[in-house]
Amino acid sequence: MPGRDPFERRLPLAHRPTPVEPLSRLGAELGMAPGRLFVKRDDMTGLAGGGNKARKLEFLCADALDHGCDTLVTGGGRQSNHVRMTAAAANKLGMHCTIVLSSPQPEHPSGNVLLDQMLAPDIEWAGVLDFGELEDAIGAACDRLTAAGRRPYRMPIGGATAVGALGYVDAARELLGQVGSVDHVVTADGTGGTHAGLAAGLGEHGRVLGIDVGARPDIAAAIPPMAVDAAGLAGVAPPTGELRIDHGQVGAGYGETTDACKEAIQLAARLEGLILDPVYTGKAMAGLVAARRAGDIGEEDTVVFLHTGGMPALFAHRYAAWLSTP
Hints:
This protein is α/β, with parallel strands linked by helices. It has helices at residues 6-9, 24-29, 53-66, 81-93, 112-119, 131-147, 162-179, 193-202, 219-234, 259-272, 281-294, 317-323; strands at residues 20-22, 37-41, 71-76, 96-101, 122-125, 152-154, 184-189, 208-212, 245-246, 303-307. The protein is globular, with a radius of gyration of 19 Å.
C-alpha cells in the first residue's frame, strides 16, 4: 500500500474490537492465580462465521484493490478457514475469487467445505499436495487467470504476508488496551502471519507463544522476517528477543487428531462453555495446558489465549465422529 498509512487504508471487514473474557474456572483447573487467564475472542470477528483471517483480509483486500486486481486467489486444506473467509470477503467487495484446495473433492461436503460451496468461489480440487506444491498450484491458478484477461491478487496459504500480518500488529495494540500488561499471548501457528503480527505489535518475540499445528514445515524460519517486515510497514521497531514455538502438539500431522487436543477441547467446553476446533485452537489450547503443567507459564503470569475461530471444522464428518467417542 505504497504512499498510504496502512491502518487508514484497511477495509472494514471485521468486527473490532473483539472482547476479552476471563477464563476463571479453567485457570483454577490449571493452578493459576485468579484473574490471570483470559481469552481474546477473535472467533467473533463476524465475517462468514468469524476467525482471525478477517483482520488480515482487511489489509490484504485493500492491497488487492490498490493494485487494480479483480480476483482474489488463495488456497488451503479441505477445512481451511482462510479459504472460507477469503471467498466471503470477495463477495462482500464484489470481486471474483478462486480457491485451490489440497484435497480430492469429497462426496459429501461438510464443515468449511459446505460453507465454501454456499459462498460459491471458483473451487479447484487439486488432490493431496504438500505446502510447497499447494503454493505452486495457487501461482498456476493466477497464471491461468492472467492469461484469460483477469487481474488476480495472489494470497499465499493463510494470507501469511507482512501486509496480512498488519491485522495482528493492530490486534496486539487493541489487546494491550483491554488487558494492560501481558506475559504470554498463546496462538495457533498455521502459516505464521498471526504470530508475526503479534510479535511486531507487542515488540517482543518472548511474549508470544506459538503452537505449531503442522501446516507449514518452515514455520520457525518464516515468522521472524515476516514480523520484521510487518513492523516496518506499521512504522514500529522490529520485535526483540527469541521466537517461541511449541512443536510438540502436531501429532501425526496437520489436521490429525491427538489425545491432548481432545482433552483441551473438553476442558474449554466443560469449564468455560468455550468451543474450540480440532485443527487450530484445540491444539493451541493443548499447548497452553502443556506449558502451564511444565512450568513454562507461571501461576502469577498474565496469559491471553487467542481464539482464532474454526468452529465449522467441528462439523466435518471425521471430527464429529472423533469428538463423539469417549
